[in-house]
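Severity: low
Component: inverse-folding endpoint
Summary: output formatting inconsistent between runs
Steps to reproduce: submit the following C-alpha cells with default settings.
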C-alpha cells in the first residue's frame, strides 16, 4: 500500500486504525497467558504454530 501511494500513508493509517477500533477488520492474535509460556511463544514462532501477533499476557 505505501509503496504505491506513500503520499496517502497517513490517511490510510488513520482509516485502518478506525476500522480496527470499530471491529470492521480484525487483527488475529496468538495469545498465551503467564510468564511461564514465554518460551513456548518463542518456539511457536519458529514452528509455525502462531497466527497473527504473538502476545504473552503477564
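Observed output (run 2 of 3):
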Amino acid at each position: 500500500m505505501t509503496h504505491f501511494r506513500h503520499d496517502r500513508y497517513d490517511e490510510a493509517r488513520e482509516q485502518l486504525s478506525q476500522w480496527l477500533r470499530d471491529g470492521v477488520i480484525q487483527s488475529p492474535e496468538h495469545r498465551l497467558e503467564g510468564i511461564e509460556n514465554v518460551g513456548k511463544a518463542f518456539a511457536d514462532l519458529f514452528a509455525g504454530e502462531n497466527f497473527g501477533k504473538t502476545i504473552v499476557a503477564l
